[in-house]
């Protein structure tokens, strides 16, 4: 029996991020800045580094991964 595919998530690596903000502009329904401009999940829990994605959010998430100047974003669990 096949396992269902895991839900895609956007992984944020804050050790790489320099709060440049491109992802915040591309994913306003997924991320919001903290007081220093670092992206956090829009919905709780705010400390998580893997943010579940709806299928409709995947194209913008792919753009954010490609455009992040610090390679701080990755997609996980997608085919
Ligand atoms: S685009 Fe990359 S470096 Fe810029 S805020 Fe987002 S994760 Fe951080």
What is the element layout, followed by pairings?
Layout: E1 9-12, H1 22-26, E2 31-33, E3 39-41, E4 50-52, H2 58-67, E5 73-76
Antiparallel strand pairs: 1-4, 1-5, 2-3
Bound molecules: iron/sulfur cluster.
| Neighbour order of strands in the largest sheet | 4-1-5
Alpha carbon gap, first and last residue: 18 Å
Structural class: alpha+beta
Number of strands: 5
Helical fraction equals 10-25%
Individual helix count? 2
Structural notes for this entry:
This protein is an alpha+beta fold and 79 residues long. The protein has a single domain (9-76), classed as Alpha-Beta Plaits (2-Layer Sandwich), CATH 3.30.70. The chain is 19% helix and 22% strand. It has helices at 22-26, 58-67; strands at residues 9-12, 31-33, 39-41, 50-52, 73-76. The strands form 2 sheets. A 3-stranded antiparallel sheet has the order 4-1-5, with helices on one face. A two-stranded antiparallel sheet has the order 2-3. The protein binds iron/sulfur cluster (SF4). Iron/sulfur cluster binds next to helix 1.
Write a concise keyword list for the protein shown above.
79 residues; alpha+beta; Alpha-Beta Plaits; three-stranded antiparallel sheet; two-stranded antiparallel sheet; 5 strands; 19% helix; binds iron/sulfur cluster
Quick recap:
This protein is 19% helix and 22% strand. With 79 residues, it is of the alpha+beta class.
